[in-house]
Design goal:
Layout (H helix, E strand, L loop, with lengths): L3 H11 L4 E5 L12 E4 H18 L6 E4 L5 H12 L3 E4 L6 H11 L3 E4 L4 H8 L7 E4 L25 E8 L5 E7 H11 L14 E3 L7 H13 L3 E3 L9 H8 L3 E5 L1 H7 L14 E5 L6 H8 L3 E5 L8 E2 L11 E3 L5 E6 L12 E7 L11 E2 L3 H7 L5 E9 L5 E6 L3 E4 L2 E4 H9 L4 E11 L3 E10 L7 H14 L8 E4 L30 E2 L11
Parallel strand pairs: 1-10, 3-4, 3-5, 5-6, 9-10, 9-11, 11-12, 12-13, 24-25
Antiparallel strand pairs: 1-2, 7-8, 8-18, 13-14, 15-20, 16-17, 17-19, 19-20, 21-22, 23-24, 25-26
């Protein structure tokens, strides 16, 4: 099984009538409002028809195509069709603003963008600003017409395990998202791993239906869940996104047996009023990461199934899960390194630390090739790739500890990344936008605790002379960011400070902005914009 497509085709041959995709009903939704299911055979039929259109247009091994199709079944149809030709995809976040999309398209250099009717004009405008040709395909109104690629396929031969499957963009700490190269081997290995963890997360081949509110531009939604269900002959339930008020009715209606969640999901479900359907479902367990440990017992008691907390990164593919009893609770226990996935905790000198001591989490594959199953590298940045792999271990940038039984406990992020509702937000990216405003002299973006979303973006702003640190200016700065960044990246809190502390090299000393243990939200004069951070239709 050398590619995702060939794997799907082989499995579909034996599971022709079993469901692979289930779309819950959602009256008023722009697509499939009554809901539907697609069997493995249905999907394969649609994929083969699309594949012939792409092949006839000239797409082949080594091309790239960007896809913005939200969490619609069409995403799978186009992805699998292109994968069979050796054409990699660049999944796009529909919440990104035009400037953010332009950066990704400039960096990844796709031949084509496949998108929805309402987004065609945005991408045509972006294409007009790019140095190389970029065609735009309206997936809803294409009528069988696919624009040809502007360049010939750069690679000879048939696609295989090491061919590019997807470029997955993940926020780094340098202000610009990094493109992680995911090969076919990476994607299939990740899926096989996810479906074979056992313990309380034992998947039964051909009998599971996983409710997946994760976006398909994320590694978790596309590689862990979608590939995991493929490798185990199971079904993906695909809502357009997470709707806390509808989850239990969706779960009952679709017969969900598993829930994949983000850290925000348990808190949001616990905040809902009691619903008779919350115990009428068939869900046996949940997998995810980032949930508040203090909520675990309440969640499991109320809703009747356990949650297996895990840890993972786009770069690693495989994830650890706290999925074997007895499960430590009350701390961020994220599982043990098993089955050839090795981990250790190291200090700044790269030496392994004693049990219980917090340090950087580094991981690798335990076989001859320590990079087996991991991403193939950062696109156009081999230096960053090698730096991350120094000493033969992948350096995660996360701080963790490990006990004598091998259990890993997540502590914090080593770099300045805000993790809001499952999204990793590079502080430097938000800082660059704020620094472009004429009123801002200096800024430090930090994570502030948030009971619902784990963390929220806090902007500590030092103003230039002549500007008043009042609510009107705070509103102006929020709007400035919200117009230029995806809604979730805009500051949820704005705090004006007289002066930001600096290091000897004139960089902001973020660790000195607040006293140890101080809650930044308690500072007098802080402005709260969390309720204004909404999907507002602006891109």
């Amino acid at each position: 099984m050398f590619t995702v497509f060939s794997t799907f085709a082989a499995i579909a041959a034996g599971l022709d009538r079993r469901p692979y995709l289930c779309v819950p009903a959602s009256p008023g939704r722009a697509y499939l409002p009554a809901g539907t299911e697609f069997s493995y055979g249905d999907v394969l039929t649609r994929v083969l028809a699309l594949q012939e259109l792409y092949r006839a247009a000239g797409y082949g091994h080594g091309h790239r195509v960007a896809i913005l199709l939200e969490n619609r079944p069409d995403f799978y149809f186009h992805f699998l069709a292109l994968n069979g030709l050796g054409t990699g995809i660049v999944p796009l976040n529909p919440d990104l603003r035009p400037a953010e999309l332009q950066y990704i398209l400039e960096h990844s250099e796709p031949e084509l963008v496949v998108t929805l009717t309402g987004r065609v004009e945005v991408f045509q405008d972006i294409a007009g600003r790019l140095a190389r040709p970029l065609a735009v395909l309206d997936a809803e109104r294409s009528e069988g017409q696919v624009p040809p690629p502007a360049s010939p396929p750069p690679r000879a031969g048939v696609p295989g395990a090491e061919s590019e499957g997807a470029i997955l963009y993940t926020s780094g700490t340098t202000g610009r998202p990094k493109g992680c190269i995911g090969t076919n081997r990476y994607m299939l290995t990740t899926g096989q791993w996810y479906a074979s963890r056992g313990g309380i997360t034992g998947f039964v081949h051909g009998q599971e239906r996983i409710y997946n509110p994760m976006p398909l531009f994320h590694m978790a939604g596309l590689c862990l869940v979608s590939m995991g269900m493929l490798m185990s002959g199971n079904c993906v339930i695909l809502p357009d996104r997470f709707h806390p008020a509808r989850l239990w009715s969706d779960a009952v209606e679709t017969g969900a047996t598993v829930l994949h969640y983000l850290g925000v999901v348990p808190a949001m479900l616990l905040a809902q009023a009691a619903d008779p359907l919350e115990r009428a479902h068939k869900i046996r367990f949940g997998l995810g990461g980032g949930a508040n440990p203090a909520l675990m017992d309440r969640f499991e008691d109320r809703f009747g199934f356990p949650l297996a907390e895990g840890w993972g990164m786009t770069e690693t593919g495989r994830s650890t899960f706290n999925n074997h009893e007895p499960r430590p609770k009350g701390r961020y226990a994220i599982g043990r390194p098993v089955d050839g996935f090795e981990a250790r905790i190291v200090g700044d000198d790269e030496q392994e630390l004693p049990y219980g001591k917090a340090g950087e989490l580094v991981v690798r594959h335990g076989g001859e090739d320590p990079r087996f199953g991991f991403f193939a590298g950062y696109l156009k940045d081999p230096a960053a790739t090698e730096e991350a792999w120094r000493g033969g271990w992948f350096h995660t940038g996360d701080v963790a500890s490990q006990d004598e039984d091998g259990m890993l406990f997540f502590v914090d992020r080593k770099k300045h990344v805000v993790r809001r509702a499952g999204e990793n937000i590079a502080a430097a990216e938000v800082e660059l936008v704020l620094l472009a405003h004429p009123s801002v002299k200096q800024v430090a973006v930090l994570p502030a605790p948030d009971e619902l979303r784990e963390e929220e973006v806090l902007a500590c702003v030092e103003l230039r002379d002549g500007y008043a640190p009042d609510l009107d200016l705070a509103r102006t700065l929020f709007a400035w960011c919200n117009e230029r960044l995806a809604y979730y990246k805009a500051p949820g809190w704005v705090l004006f400070v007289d002066e930001l502390p600096l290091t000897g090299t004139q960089k902001v000393a973020k660790t000195k902005v607040f006293a140890p243990g101080e809650d930044p939200r308690a500072r007098p004069g802080i402005h709260d914009f969390r309720s204004a951070k909404k999907r507002d239709g602006k891109r």
